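RETRY 2/3 - previous attempt timed out on the joint model. Re-submitting the same 726-residue input unchanged.
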Amino acid sequence: MKRHFPVIRWLMVLSIGLVVALGLFSAPIKSNAAEKTYQIGTDVTFPPFEYANDNNKYVGIDIDLMNAIAKDQGFKVNFKPTSFNGAIQAVQSGQLNGMVAGMSVTPERKGTFDFSTAYYNSGVVMAVSQNNNDIKSLKDLKGKTIAVKTGTTGAQYAQSIQKKYGFKISTFDDSSNVYEDVLTGNSVACFDDEPVLKYGINQGTKLKIVTKPAAGTPIALGVKKGTNKDLVEKFNAGLAHLKKNGEYKKIMDKYLNAKKNTEDNHSFFGILKQNKTFLWQGFLQTLWLTIVSIIFATIFGVIFGLFGVLPIKFFRGLSSTVIYLFRGMPLLVLALFIYTGIPTLTGTRIPAFIAGVITLMLDEGAYIAAFVKGGIESVDKGQMEAARSLGLPFGKSMRKVILPQGVKLMVPSFINQFIITLKDTSILSIIGILELTQTGKIIIARNLEGFKVWAMVAIIYLVVITLLTWLSNWVKRRAKI
Amino acid sequence: MSKIKVTDLHKQYADNHVLRGVDLEVKDNEVVVIIGPSGSGKSTLLRTLNKLEEPTSGSVVVHGTDIAQKGVNIDQVREQIGMVFQHFNLFNNLSVGKNIMLAPVELGKLSKEDAVKQAKKLLGVVGLENKFDASVNSLSGGQKQRVAIARALAMNPDIMLFDEPTSALDPEMVGDVLNVMKKLAKEKGMTMVVVTHEMGFAKEVADRVVFVDDGIIQEEGTPDEIFNHPKNDRLKSFLSKILEV
Ligand SMILES: Nc1ncnc2c1ncn2[C@@H]1O[C@H](COP(=O)(O)OP(=O)(O)OP(=O)(O)O)[C@@H](O)[C@H]1O
Ligand SMILES: [Mg+2]
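RETRY 2/3 succeeded.
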């Protein structure tokens, strides 16, 4: 098999290059971890506990309180905006030191978390549409559907009383979707923490609260059980101090007794104008994520696609396995697995952006590998035989005769895959990458204008995809393919 | 002197025993024509001569090297054996001239300028001098096959293998290709092994005709012996069938 050596060596060099490149990417982040900064996870779409304000800076009870405590106790905080569930998993995998996200202390969570002293006592209330006069209490819910946000105390409370009052539950990932479901009438009511619902109503959501706070639960900072004792101690000391000097009350008043917001312009262009920088940044992040991922996915896919046509069983097996594995896995699962799973195995933190690139490299790369392999295989076998019969070695035959013909067949698939990659970046909002979709979620969490903001986001995606299509058609024409 | 010596050659695909003990010798300047019914193993036999098929057992000695052995540098042996396929297999991504130039340039046999000169000369030999820049797809079948012959000749082989070179051609094209092959045999004294159904060609050009059926050589001899005085029953029935057509 010696005669194949040059091709394989060439592929090996590429694979090693890939690994090194990824290593370089993550190297500077490792040194960050050595600094005396706590990585704190938070759910950025949970006002008034945490949300992005009009200037798209993160504010809220949790943010302000944590910052005040950090200042008081002399440490630094680096907020990692993810979803609530994403933060839970990142804390459990050691990606983050802790989380403040309006997190209730529950017996179940105590199994895997250690908590600080509670800094707030929240109660769940029920809200209905403003013009709904039929639902006045829990008893009126029989046979109806109610909406809750996943993982919230509201959701738990609803579950605990579901049997007694006989209603159905719809769950959503974002508050705005919960409210929307009630306003459209799909659900008759929703349950959430009182401050959260009050904030929504202040923002102009046409809901009203119809019950008294129930099932009060303490809210606290959470860390992975048995870790980060120092953080918990500093938090408790700081909280006690702030309560004494009045700063705690100031923060609470600021958010819990907020005035009704009437200044915001909620028209399409008003929202666009207010958020244009934020959306632009999200767009740039999406573009950057797409470009980097496409480069890595292409290298990865071409290598494993070529492995699939080598005359050596081991490499062909490797290729089919990789294609089978990563093509068969939902992108969402793969992203969460890599972001939270790999640190659990290796003990090293992995930044969301790198996790995102690796996810897309593996997933899109598997598709690329499949059509690279397919493209080469669909070149007539006689072409290879003719080249080999002239005395050309396998690698040369591949490069001079087979690949040029195979690539031609692959071009439409490549363009297609690039567009899919762009769209798939939106799924990475789940691990908190601040790309276009996540940006949209955050804006909506504040202004609760889901329809208008999603329309903007959709238009931006369409514009980019159109540009990308034009670009690839131009390349296609230039290359005379 | 013997150029190719095949001894007790077997080839098996799973439980399909295609070649079942073939002995064959091809001497310098000799033209050997292989005939036989469809599926009898002619192509398989021809393709083991340059290891496009790997023999299951037996030896295939070409220029003194047993290419059936493991670890042989087969590329070096192939440089000296040209092969022409039934379906031409011209490189679709290259022009006619570049098809011919690819191997000598890539393997460092000729500089680019010399390869251009040689390609033009070879196109002259096969009667296509003005097709150097033509694209492969613009050629007729007969022209394609003549380019394929020129391509094989570009490596300066001293053995040429032909696997039914005319059976994919329209009847009016067959003559052109056969004429090139005759020229090769008669003027250049090329050693050739030809699988074909063109009995006229066999009668006129072959030094020896080999009849393969059921994975073995049933009978071999001069064209006169094979066509006019066949002994083997299978050969007799094969001849009667093709002469009917
Ligand atoms: N790659 C392969 N795998 C499995 N079986 C094969 C393969 N190549 C050839 N065979 C089988 O070997 C037998 C002989 O095939 P071969 O092509 O040598 O016949 P042939 O004499 O050239 O026939 P034809 O005149 O039709 O070209 C056939 O039964 C064929 O199905
Ligand atoms: Mg055949």
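The CA atoms of residues 264 and 270 of chain A lie 8 Å apart. Closing ticket.
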